[in-house]
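Quick one, T. Sequence first:
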Amino acid sequence: MADDRKYYLPEGLPTPRAQRNGLDREYWEAAKRHELVVQRCKGCGVFQWGPEPICHKCHSFDLGWQQVSGRGRLFSWVRTWNPVHPALRGACPYIVAVVTLPDADNIRMVGNLLGDPNQNPSFDAEVEAVFEDHGDVALVQWKLR
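Structure tokens:
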């Protein structure tokens, strides 16, 4: 990635939107504020990701959102050489990371790992969430700490 680029991801990609049923709306609203939130059951207290209408553990429908630190650990990663969208042709390679969030029951989130696309980060490396603004949407990315 060139340091003079405004965004890690190139322009021309479709931007994600909240689901029509509003289930993940709070996640996207928090990301615009540069806050990371995850779903948490109000009944049993378990965190979960991705957003669902029911708790994975106790099957309660009483779910809310809780802000978390945005600090995590690198669980896994892959260097992507094949673009999944035409706008990514010039962006390859890039690293897609799976991150665990220790302060949220070690749930796992997926995102891009910023920095040198040829780096070989160690598994369990510390990472933190960073936010990339795209108009009315902010994407959560990850960087090594």
